[in-house]
Amino acid sequence: MFSLAPNQETALLANLVHLLPIAPLTEGSTGGFEAPSIMEFYPEIIAFEGTPFALNRIMLIRLLVTALLFVVFWLWTSKFKKSYKTGKLVPSRFQLMGEISLNFVRKSIAHDQLGEKDGDRFLPLLTTIFFIVLGMNVTGIIPGLNIAGTSLIGLPIVLALAAYVTFIYAGVKKHGGHFFSAALFPAGVPKAFLILVTPIELLSTFILRPITLALRLTMNMIAGHLLLVLCFSATEFFLFHADGLFKAFGAGTFLFGFIFTLFEILVAFLQAYVFTLLTTVYIQLALADEH
Amino acid sequence: MDVTNIAALSGNLAVVGYGLAAVGPGIGVGLVVSKTIESIARQPELAARLQVTMWLGIAFTEALALIGLATPFIFA
Fold first, then answer.
1. How many C-beta atoms lie closer than 10 Å to residue A217's C-beta?
2. Residue B2 lies in a domain
3. Within a domain: residue B1?
4. Do A215 and B63 make contact, defined as CB atoms within 8 angstroms?
5. ipTM of the prediction
């Protein structure tokens, strides 16, 4: 009853083909508003095109942030050393900033989750991850830079791999091969259920953990950047290309853009916190004794 | 019989897919936060501890929505 005659099928196909070019056409003809696309994250290459070291805007921002982190940490540690040597107990404002930021990772992430001994063992990695992620995220809302260094997946993958290798190392160092068997065959599960449980555990522990770590960070930054671009390009469109009362919409979209900029500051910090916290929790789960 | 178009839609089906993918995590994050607020109201002295757990819960739940956001790029 519902079978289509061949000519009907071709008619359907022709209709489908007709539908396809509509999207680009309407986009071009609405008077200049261009919605942001994923190509935002692939800006033109500035130098060394064709080599593996091709530089674009995002790579330059990453290099800048890395250099800044080097300088800031070098200044902080030299301040710490100096005040330790001279016995000066009242820190300067700059030194206090360093102490508070470093103590935040140490006290409320590492010591809280891992305890003092193990917390200090893994502190260098956790501090590095926290400050790299924070520094790279924050460039997303700095005027003039305007894109987060973590909004391409390469950097988050490197950080997630570091976390992955570390929690497996922590588990193997403490429990040996028993780490893998305890993770894959949880104690207290009836033998018959292992057919169901083991694949799930394998997937969630050894495959999905690093993937979600990297994806969570990247996708948050991509979504945030696209939202900001959408708000501000809409403001530009309404103010300069729309006529009459539509110009008033520009004020609204600008306000939204401003609010989302504030929100992005929160997100930048929160993603750094969550990334570090999850790394800590994975290490803690690897170190935990099975009951 | 001729095929007549009553309405035509243009755009990408992936957008609808992402809309669906955002429903579950949206409900999930809401549940996590509401339960945390309840627990803090009952035992305010545990607030710091509960907040850390809340962020963890949100991070795990939110991952589903973000995987949904990533799939169109991967399978495009």
1. 27
2. no
3. no
4. yes
5. 0.78
